[in-house]
Specification:
Chain lengths: 116, 487
């Protein structure tokens, strides 16, 4: 009973995450005081993209969301976590790598976050 | 009048005297303004004197504590003695007393004995009473024996001191007593000045000698260091403070080995190009070069965890490289800009790829720089806003923020690594071989520049391009290296 409560709670938060992630073209899960999160926001703004940011430290369900993200990523959480077009891109590492290898821009265009 | 008698004894300092051992005692005795008289009928003037006496004693005590060997080295011209001499002298009769106690057989003429003599004088002298006592005890204890042994002569002296007034001068020439008092004082002062000047000269000479030898030694050390550095034994500036963390030291060692590998790879690339190998062979060499850089980023990742500040300050690189340091390494967009100028055989598709790579690396750098900027601002306010009460907490917070520097250096290295990988993807095998050779040679030259910079002549350097030594050395260096003539 206890475990099922936990599981349902977990699946709830995962649903929350997915709901939030698909809510906008570009979704960033962030911590308001985190400087790397600031960097990723600057990256998208610099490209002319207007991301939707969820500060999990200001969310009452923040802990749950963080746990769900950790499960999704399969690694200990490192904010920020980025979704584009509802699909998980990953943490700063992955975002940078995809920008350098040229896959980020097409992804943004497909999601309707960039027009050029 | 008793004063003039003391004056004689002072005079005896500068000349050969039966009080030979006393002549060097003068520096160690207390000095008070000579116009004060210790034995004084009027209490008010006496109070003033006692104050000065106490001050002088306190000063002397400091000097004693700093100069324990003073006793042992009386007969050598110790530089410190000169400073003590610079105080105005004791009232003349006061000088008399310590000397007399010394006469009683004390080898070591130390201020302690003088102080003790003071104490004993204090005892005998009605006016001083107990005023002196509180100041003296710390010094007087070990010297108690001395005091007791010299007690008699001291007392004797005291008594004779009190009677000293009418005694004619023993030493120097004739004349009326009042004249002699003046003369004695002046002569004594002159003698002391001479002593002080002599000691000052000796001290200066010793200091200059020390400076000279230190300077020579420093020059030798610098030479050794340069030699060692140019031979690759010591990596990085290793500036003031040899305290390098173990993580940093380990990284420096690994990096030195990596640099050796780098040279090897560079010559491999060069020979591969000149040998016109097949694409598959070139592929192997190029992949090995990329793996070589991947290895560096691995090393840096480990170093970032143990000592990110070592990485971010670039103490592991050479000075010239440090000029262009960005977040603990090279700036990817600068590298691309440099390559664009060097790689001319590009297809349109490739050119587009290179220019987007330049743009995306620039955007990535900008984002990371802004993130780092925010971190720095946050750290500044954390350090500035600490109050006394929660200073430990603030320190912990600051420490946490310093740790997040790691993340930035890691992301910057990630950016560098991705850039190199993307270059490999855009270019053909042959182009990639050239490209990596260019990169390798570029950084090789930057390091050579650092060596030249470190060994450049610094004195009387005439900044004339045609005549300066450095430029001729540079020319020789460049002509001996392969140019980018392969393209």
């Amino acid at each position: 009973m206890y475990s099922s409560t936990r599981q349902s709670k977990a699946s709830d938060s995962q649903e929350t995450v997915m709901r939030l992630a698909t809510g906008s073209a570009v979704v960033i899960f962030s911590v308001s005081t985190c400087c790397m999160c600031h960097a990723v926001k600057r990256l998208f703004c610099g490209m002319g993209v207007n991301p939707s940011v969820h500060e999990i430290d200001q969310d009452p369900n923040g802990k749950e969301i963080e746990r769900a993200l950790m499960t999704l990523l399969g690694s200990p959480s490192a904010m920020p976590v980025v979704f584009i077009g509802g699909k998980l891109v990953g943490t700063m590492d992955r975002v940078m790598a995809s920008h350098i290898n040229g896959t980020l821009v097409p992804l943004l265009k497909d999601a309707g976050a960039l027009w050029l | 009048m008793a004063s003039h008698r003391g004056g004689q004894h002072v005079l005896s300092d500068s000349g050969p005297s039966r009080h030979h051992h006393i002549s060097y005692a003068v520096p160690h005795t207390l000095h008070l303004p000579s116009n004060t008289s210790f034995i004084n009928q009027e209490g008010s003037a006496f109070d003033f004197e006692i104050e000065e006496l106490e001050e002088a004693i306190a000063l002397q005590r400091v000097k004693i504590n700093n100069n324990d060997e003073a006793k042992q080295t009386l007969y050598t011209a110790r530089p410190r003695a000169a400073t003590i001499e610079m105080f105005p002298s004791w009232p003349l009769k006061f000088h008399h007393t310590p000397r007399e106690s010394l006469k009683s057989g004390e080898d070591s003429v130390c201020s302690e004995s003088a102080l003790n003599t003071l104490a004993s004088r204090g005892d005998t002298c009605t006016a001083t009473g107990h005023r002196l006592q509180p100041l003296l005890p710390p010094e007087t204890q070990p010297q108690m024996e001395m005091v007791s042994s010299s007690d008699k002569p001291t007392t004797g002296v005291t008594e004779s001191q009190l009677d000293a007034k009418p005694n004619p001068p023993k030493r120097r020439g004739a004349g009326s007593s009042s004249d002699k008092v003046l003369d004695a004082k002046t002569l004594r002062r002159l003698a002391q000045n001479r002593e002080a000047a002599k000691k000052s000269r000796l001290r200066k000479k010793a200091y200059v000698h020390q400076l000279e030898s230190s300077r020579i030694r420093l020059a030798q050390l610098e030479q050794d260091l340069q030699r060692a550095r140019s031979q690759g034994f010591i990596i990085g500036g290793g500036a003031a403070g040899g305290n390098i963390s173990s993580g940093a030291a380990l990284f420096d060692m690994e990096y030195a080995r990596w640099l050796d590998d780098e040279h090897r790879h560079m010559s491999e690339l060069r020979t591969a190009l000149q040998a016109h190998l097949s694409d598959s062979d070139l592929q192997i060499i190029v992949d090995k070069y990329i793996a070589h850089y991947d290895e560096l980023f691995c090393l840096k990742e480990v170093a970032a965890v143990s000592d990110v500040i070592h990485l971010i300050t670039g103490m592991w690189t050479t000075p010239a490289e440090r000029c262009f340091l960005w977040m603990g390494g090279f700036r990817p967009s600068d590298l691309i800009k440099m390559l664009i100028a060097q790689l001319d055989t590009l297809t349109e598709h490739q050119a587009v790829g290179i220019y987007s790579l330049q743009q995306s690396s620039q955007q990535g750098e900008e984002a990371l720089s802004q993130g780092l900027e925010q971190l720095q601002q946050s750290l500044i306010s954390t350090i500035a806003n600490g109050s006394v009460n929660d200073s430990m907490h603030q320190m912990a917070v600051a420490l946490g923020k310093l740790t997040s520097l790691e993340g930035f250096v890691r992301q910057a290295d990630n950016l560098r690594q991705q850039t190199l990988h993307q270059l490999r993807r855009i270019l053909t095998v042959r182009q990639a071989t050239r490209c990596f050779l260019v990169i390798s040679e570029y950084y090789g030259r930057l390091r050579a520049l650092s060596s030249l910079w470190a060994s450049r002549p610094r004195e009387n350097f005439i900044a004339d391009d045609n005549s300066c030594q450095t430029s001729t050395v540079l020319q020789t260096l460049l002509s001996s290296r392969n140019q980018f003539s392969n393209f």
